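Quick start: load a record and inspect it. Here is Bifunctional metallophosphatase/5'-nucleotidase:
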Amino acid sequence: MKHNGSKYTLLLGTTLLGLYFQASGVHAATTDSVTNNQQSVNGNVTPMVQTNKDEASTPQTTTDWSDPAKYQQDIPVQILGINDLHGGLETTGSATIGNKTYNNTGTAARLAGHLDAAEESFKAANPTGTTIRVEAGDMVGASPANSALLQDESTMHALKAMDFKVGTLGNHEFDEGLAEYMRIVNGGQPTKQYNEAEMVYPHVNSGINIITANVVQKSDGQIPFGMQPYLIKEIHTSDGKVAKIGFIGIETTSLPILTLYDNYKDYDVLDEATTIAKYDKILRNKGVNAIVVLAHTGVATDKDGNTKGNAVDIIKKLYQIDPENSVDLYVAGHSHQYANATVGSVKLVQAIYTGKAYDDVIGYIDPSTNDFAKNSIVSHVFPVLSAEDAPNVKTDANVTAIVQDADRRVAPIINKKIGEAAKAGDILGRLHNTPTRENAAGELVVDGQLYAAKKAGLPADFAMTNTGGVRADLHVNEDRSITWGSAQAVQPFGNILRVVQMTGSQIVDALNQQYDEDQAYYLQVAGLHYTYTDQNDPNQPYKVVKVYDQNNQPLDLNKNYNVVINDFLAGGGDGFSAFKNTKVVGIIGQDTDAFINYITDMTNEGKLITAPVMNRKIYMTAEQLVSEDAVNSSVDNNQDATLVTGTTNKEMDQPTTPTVVLPTTAGQPAKVIQLTTQTVAKANANRADVNSQFVNLTPMMLDKASVTHQTTDDSKQAMLPQTGDDDDLTWLLLGTSLMSAIGLTIINRKRKQA
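Running the structure step on this input writes:
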């Protein structure tokens, strides 16, 4: 009785312990996502995340600014910020801020006018106040022709005219190497030959102090090109008050997957939060407690009022490192989205991108502490409204003149007709994706790259490009003409295209890598089409289950194929590691030239440009796959799906009944089992039989297989990807059973010892 009681007590205890750990993990994750106020591992409290409302469209109509009368002894400070301008001198579009969408926002001249109006409004209420204009990276790169053809120097002219004083590095500042970016910031002469328009363009110092604290040279650990990690600005008011405010510059640690290898290989990008904590302490030791971080790290506030992203995580980590930090404002960038929140006591803002919005943050510095007075900071993000929507805001004449001058200089190049479309109307790009992340402009680009390879004598089977490199819709004029400038706006980088050799297995890996990181990075593909479905992996919720070439033949995992990619992907850009270290078959040329030449050649051949049919990525549920005889997959012992080439239905040229491939084990060859209703039923009946041929089919596999054969009338309806928690329960039961088994093993060992 004693032995049996101990045995069953331990059995029950281990079972309950397993349940406890599982439940605790789920509860902690759920609670943290809701309250953002859990205790961290080192005892520090993770700061609350509170979204700030943006209901007004202008500073003048905003009613929650702090009352200047309460801060008469303090120094008023306004921070006006932008991010991700990308040379958008004339870019317009919609801007969603809070729960409202504004149309026809943007252009540099309108941005300048709105910044001036915001400063005037601030000064009207705070006559002794100081305004500082800042930017959070990606001012250049991926730019329209009137900036790109001038090496983005026209954009730097516009920023100078808008009086921006402090900025930091984004990933696109590395597009042509950091040396070239610093040249245009400082107004140096070109170091190599560009087009005639750029060579005669005035090269002037922008007046912007570029600061970066976490980009250091690998060789000596120093910040390159004489840049400083921070900037201290001393503020003097007309009534004799003096205060200091500090700025820290931060680059995203994702830089290695966002630019070419040659452009970042000489640098290390240090952890953002650790670096902020380091220089925050240095500034405090210098008596500077009013601190602003300019960081090219993403964040977003959604329509439901949730603010999430890398910037939030960085601030939370900062609080864990130093709960007493003195960071007051975090101006974010990179993710091209709207955000306005308070994380702990840090105001966090991001003003979409391409000049469609701007940050307006007002606070009051106590000169006795050199810190912002408690609760005095109010942050907002406002749209850059058109002249029609905001006629009281003047369009800046100086910036208008800069843009018009740039247009005039590049006009002979960009207005040249290169081709013709079958009909008028833009061919839409990545802002108009299908649910499967396809867009017409992107697929036209890869069609052109596949064509360019064959034209260069380097026959390729497939072409793939990162969608982030497809920067705009392809504009088609009313007379159906397509200009050089329109094509260049779609493919502005000038990345080098290469043909590389990849196995079918590597290609599947690349396609699957689209489905991690919440599909933040994805591909446009040509020469192939594929089907993908759900899988029970929170890190990668979807998997590719079949791939066909353009002749509708299944991909052979062991065969070598030639694939066109750009050098950004070849370096593992956007996290696509499957493309790294692939054998180079040949070099084609620049992606910009390939796209322009494709449009020209197709037109000359009488093939007018049309939007491709977007059917290259097909999502299907497991039920749809089985019911339509559209899958032939194998599942290994860990339920990881891989692609196989199996038998096909000759008439339909589609895979037949789904199979499970049991891997080779000691003394047993690999087995292939057809997942018919009968085999699934037999496997269910034999789960407890260790000698069964189905020993490698886990309960989870069998349950899924059973479900796939329970088709309904809706199984063929279009469905959006869904995920569920059913598998968590299965794992919980398996885990607790395992713990019980361990407990019994320990008891048996003790009994033998006794």
